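User: Second chain of the day. Same drill as before.
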Amino acid sequence: MAINMCVTYYPLIFYSRLAGKNGRYLFIVPAIFGLPVYLARILSPFYLDFPTEDFKYFAIALASDNVHGMAQVLTILLIYRLLSREKISRFYNNTIFSIDLTNKRKRQLLILMGIFLMILALGALITLASVSGFGVGNWISYPRIGYQEYRRGNGHYWVLAQVLLSISAILLLLTSRTKFKFIIYALSNGGIWWFLGSKAFLIGFGAFATAMWFYKFGKNYFLLGLMIIMIFLLMIANWLLNTELQVSLGDFSQILEYFDMYQVGIMYYKEYYADQIKLFYGDVYLSSFWSYVPRALYEDKPWVYGIYLIVDRFFPGGPESGNTPGFAGSVEQFADFGYAGLLVAPLLDLTFLMRTAAIILICRALRDGTWRNGRMFLLSIFFMAPNWTPWAGGLYLIGLLFLVIFIFLCLNLWGRKTRVPEIIAYKLFSSK
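Assistant: Same format as last time:
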């Protein structure tokens, strides 16, 4: 377990030291927020009274996580080494966009964009609730049921809401100049995250909002503790109020079971070592590229692909319903080639490689003193926004990248050719 904690938190410590004082809170605060969930997950066999025979497979699942985690750490260090070359650093520093938030009109334009994207995200969520057949009223009352059971065939609206809302949160919180505006933006944006129905979003947004408060207004450990308590109470409320289960708040074990994923991982390793399930020899990895294809554009897109090949075996119909449990024990990476797959998986994970490279480049720029608010924006995008949706496929990241590029083009190219966007923002936000 000590090894698992080291490989889990080492990347965050590495990035925080690399970013220096300007960006370290974006890594330290999420690490603190995630610690209670991590401990609940890693200690689950002891407080959930796993059968004695399951501890053997828990140890195997934990060892698989450790091997995969160490492979990720080595990949991060390799990418850092490659990106430390002088030519790459010079190319990055000469070509990166920047956002000057000291420019009042551009800051107002970013606020306008943030509000507009938040409205669009709300529209995407309302559209999802309407076309799913669940209804807007039911979705408001039971967002978790809507998220789990009524996204089928309309997941692109859900992904669109995530992309728009995550960029909106970053724009609004990064550009707010007073504590009052920061709180208003955080409450309005965070309220919409609740209706997406996922507990991971609540942790991610709470961590990001707290980290941005530390960055803009200084450290506040009382706020940190208060936010952690509030977010976890909201997570439990999200589960208790939006499921059909009748659970007593006094039944603490059932609440803790909510955070466990090792029971499902144990199921897989039991069958694997009993020769009841074979390796997939690349099918899981190759079929995962279906995540880049929106079902709205290709209706014949399969329901069972990637990790869902395994989910469907243990929970038939789960992938089609959209209600899929998580597998601890690095099952997705193990399923194709066993322990060899755990070692090479980080080198084949395009999302992991892209995020790692982006974070390292931006952190080095912060540390070296070439500080720009634009780099803080990029760091927020590549680390925090995908962190809210760790299971999201390529479609999410493609939308995220296009939206980021569009924002930079608006601020840099439009500002040179025409002042219309800036004039609109100035008229809307000017006190005169």
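The two ends are 60 Å apart (CA to CA).

User: Great, on to the next one.
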